[in-house]
Amino acid sequence: MAEREVDDSQGRAARSVPLWKMLPGLMRDPLGQLVALADSAEGEILRLNLGTVRPYLVTEPAHVQHILRDNEANYTRGGQSMLWRPVRRFTGDGILSDGPEWRASRARMQPHFTAKRIDLLVDSMSRAISDAVDEFDEPARTGRWLDAGTELGRVICRAISSVFFADRVSLADQLRIVAAQGTIVTALRARLLLPFVPDAVPVPGDRALRRAIGVVDDIMLPLVRAEIANPRDGDDLLAALARARDEHGRPLDERQVRDDVVASFATATETTYAVLTWLWPILDAHPEIAERLYAELDEVVGTDRVISRDQLSALTYTRSVVDELLRMYPAGWLVPRTALADDVIGGTRIRAGSLVVVSSYITQRLARFWDRPDTFDPERFRGDQSRRSHRYAYFPFGGGPHQCLGMYLFNLEAPLVVATVLSRYRFRLREPGMPPRQLAAALRPGRPVVMALTPVRERRPA
Ligand code: HEM
Q1: Does residue 461 fall inside a structural domain?
Q2: Which CATH number fits the domain that encloses residue 419?
Q3: Residue 355 DSSP symbol
Q4: What is the tally of structural domains in the chain?
Q5: What is each CA distance from 389 to 210, 281, 328, 394, in whole angstroms?
Q6: CA–centroid distance, residue 458 to ligand 1 (Å)
Q7: Ligand 1 atom with least separation from CA of 263
Q8: Does ligand 1 have an atom closer than 6 angstroms to the CB of 378?
């Protein structure tokens, strides 16, 4: 199955895996095949031979740490990197790029997303989520089917919009942006799967991508222009970036503001939506875990509408369910880089200019680091068991200087959404069973998750 390249320079050459030989399995279950390959390599770095593109597949936690943190300067997201080049058509050259533009964006945005800053949002976010979840009362009474993804999109927008644009973008426009992002994520699949095709050569999805970017720009650009012309005092990201100055003391141009607000809103909604949509089929498939979760919610939240800070801290099982969701379905499953200079990792030589692929999905399912890796088991994240063998055996939010900016936001928002919905309603899926995984920029379910809700009990008046 694998051949070793001949190389007499420093470090040994990576074992080359001719992926075309595995094509039938790869077509059926690409991620499953890559996990099996990584398991059999026992930590060795592999070179996946896809013909014109030959990425290194790096799965060992210590090697992941080398790329994302210890020698991160050698591994860039800039240039022609897989995933990032097509993503930048939508998000521009700011926070999702690399080099000086990224550094400047990160420095401007970081203060908005610190643990301390996010902690101040507990009460307002909990209220916003409660108000959004109130809208399930009617479909729960009538038994109407709901698309979990669409409904979660609405709840998530209500939860986080104040962080991004105060009340400047209506819920309807936010939902149009979220829908356009869905089109973009899917339209980018061809570029993701065909990283060697230059931008000038059209691939399926290009037209849908352009149209969807147009939808976002039609909403955001006039707004950004108006904010720059008349800066506000607000502490939302849009107001702050519209007031910001670059290192020469000049205001940012409208493109810079648009790119960073759009990039962070898109990553915030897309990832949260993707992870939480997996929750329903998972709970449906594991009634004992669902019961345990309901018991905690019953005890801690009871009939309260708005979850308090103390209640949130007491929701430890809910937290573990979310952590385990992030292990098995990490939305940011693919973290590619391009090596700038030759390097040696664990004795294997990495050649300058080549693509290096790190994947939380693969590492978080390695049998050497995870007992029963394909079993959903929140107990892994409880008490003593939560001690990891290696920091980078679990890295749903990446690591090093590019570590997810929204980690604290997600860690606040996700348990609040889960607890608010499931303390009030039980659900029934229209189509039981786990959906296939859609390999797009985020790891989404490959079919809609449709469900009906029923109220747990009569609600206490507000
Ligand atoms: C389930 C939730 C989320 C997951 C799994 C996730 C995952 C990730 C990962 C793996 C990275 C590292 C990318 C890299 O190293 O190249 C990242 C970066 C990033 N994430 Fe998240 N993310 C999530 C939620 C959010 C939220 C809520 C926000 C809202 C602000 C956000 C904003 C960002 C941004 C702006 C970056 C780029 C940071 C940088 O390069 O400096 N993410 N995320």
Answers
A1: no
A2: 1.10.630.10
A3: E
A4: 1
A5: 44, 29, 17, 9
A6: 38
A7: 35
A8: no
